[in-house]
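pls read this protein.

:::
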Amino acid sequence: MAQLWRGSLNCAINCGAIAVSAVTKGPADGSVFFLTSAGAIVINPSLYKNLSYRPERDLVPVSIVVTTPQVLVVPLQSKVNSAKDLVAQSRTGRSVSLASSGIGSMQHMAIELFKASTSAEFLHVAYKGAAPAITDTIGGQVDAFFGDASGLVPFVDGKKLKPVAVTTAKRLPYLPDVPTLDESGIKGVYAENWYGLMVPAGTPPKIVQELNGAVRRILENKDVKANLTKMGLTPAPSTAAEFSDRIRADGGKWSKLIAERNVKPE
């Protein structure tokens, strides 16, 4: 990125409120930007009422960079071979656990959509990050895990986890044998994480446009595209306006779900 831009960049990778705060206090000259996942921008503002930042006030969208949907995985030795099997288990009176990488994560949102769509009861086990959730799913300490495709592809390819469904309208090119939840008869569970570039409020539109062009040039590189796709990431460069629209739409969707499901930050 630095090679395509001005050679001097300060990039904050999404580490929650601390990263956002650092970016919002930085100079609005294109030298500081924020690579964030969806959660900090479209979920946290509805979940945490005392955030030190407000995305619409403090940040300017530049471009979506990549997207990655959620994949429902179970331990390799599990008798569950489909999302419907998991729902059936929950209706036997047995407690069935669904892991996420944390309260308010995209994985948590996928679980809430899944529960709402199936009217089934599951025990949500919120971990502090994806790594321990994956470890415990592999070990069978939890029954299933919703996770970013990008974090799960290596474990699926390595035959350590069994994928049973994806949260997209169509099957994924890198997991062609895994059905969508729609195909499994569980409708409306669409949860896609994204990573996008944002800059401090007040950054001139000309700089935003130039940064947007730099992102697009990187993502149009064939090798970059191929490597990202192998990792379960879909290059998704957008205009700044398209990114703003996505933030608005996703923010509304998750705010509604959080209210309807009475999701609390605890």
Observations:
- The two ends are 37 Å apart (CA to CA).
- The chain has two domains: 10-67+193-260, 68-166.
- The domain at 68-166 is CATH 3.40.190.10 (D-Maltodextrin-Binding Protein; domain 2).
- The beta strands are 10-13, 32-37, 59-75, 97-100, 123-126, 144-148, 161-166, 192-200, 234-235.
